[in-house]
């Protein structure tokens, strides 16, 4: 169906692609793998008509094509879903789904499109999404479902998923990939980009790897496993899966975080529990089942329906009841948000300016910022998280992994006692994930308490000391490291697990 041959693209002195080649045949799902900065996104933009290549060719159905715009590729049947959620927030869900299509005014046509939109949304989501409500009222995951539905409504011959599953939970990912497979069985094809190794191994027929803008290899499904793919992508011996051997905080006596009779919603079961210094606690569950809201309650960003959160970071374990975010930060808590583009970074500012935003008061003397002090702190924490980007570079030009390092490092600069992270490895490549895991383990070994929401099962298994699984707005199960297996986690996602409403079970 599609052949990409020797494509090159440079942006000024930066060569994003040098020699990218791949083929996608009708009926197959091809996984495009590579670290952040390897050229994947640039290649997707070439395929989508967003940028024009400097060299090379695209061949579709045996004929050379040179798309001049995204509209040209849409006409050719190539439809792309990006990682970044692209919606018109003030329009309804229905209008978003048909955005870019010819206007429809006749009542019969409107009814047909409404029925078709309902059909596709119901395939992707087990929970109904209202067509007439504003898309801005939906959560992040539901908005991405709408973006994917918009692409599927165009009946693409080639569907390009550029980390489009990074915001989806297990259920929604499985439903999407089942629909992709069904369409491929009918003659379509898919190019699939994901940093979740279990996901690509489960769904791809072939694997193509980019490194430094060059296609470095290809593997069939029969010859691929996690470690082989990591070696192909990185060029080094590495392990795709990890199992932390750190002791964790269970042997430490100091309680740092305590929840008492906490209800996320009025109908939730009350939750009691403590977290000790040096523990890494995972929060998990299907989207919308309470884990995000629980994390926000801990951070003071959301008021619980009942109960309280107490930070015991003062002298001799003195406690502070968390009532709002500012108070939580002053008491020694830091929160890394989920959506780095809209909540985490100021894109027009430099890495240094983004990094020093939470610590400006420490750098000021008599109302003036100390440049040397700022630069020294940046170098110290950039080294800690292995951030090599120059401080003066605009953060918007960094890869997703390096942007996340800037966000994490700036909160580490406040030296928090409790670090809360909301899905911090979403859309981050394998190497950067491993580096972030190492950072978190070093922090925990130094006594920092870490509570981390994750949508990746392998991450929950390999990194956490304990995992709290939420279902229906309540904590449905608590799994120690020795108990956390894929089968038990996924079972708990659907409410099939040991209850955990008593304080002893959460400790």
Keywords:
single chain, 507 residues, alpha/beta, Rossmann fold, 3 domains, six-stranded mixed sheet, 19 helices, disordered C terminus
Mind explaining what this structure looks like?
It contains 19 helices and 22 strands. The protein folds into three domains: 2-234, Rossmann fold; 243-332 and 416-506, P-loop containing nucleotide triphosphate hydrolases (Rossmann fold); 340-415, no CATH class. It has a six-stranded mixed beta sheet, sandwiched between helices. The protein has a six-stranded mixed beta sheet with strand order 16-19-20-13-21-22, sandwiched between helices. The longest helix is centred in the N-terminal third of the chain and has 18 residues, at 107-124. With 507 residues, it is of the alpha/beta class.
Strand order of the largest sheet: 6-7-8-3-9-10
Structure classification: alpha/beta
Strand content: 15-25%
CATH homologous superfamily identity of the largest domain: P-loop containing nucleotide triphosphate hydrolases
Instruction: Calculate the mean pLDDT score and round it.
Output: 85
Q: CATH topology of the largest domain, what is it called? A: Rossmann fold
Report the major sheet.
6 strands, mixed
Q: Ends: how far apart?
A: 56 Å
How many H/I helical runs?
19
Return Rg in Å.
24 Å
The coarse silhouette is globular
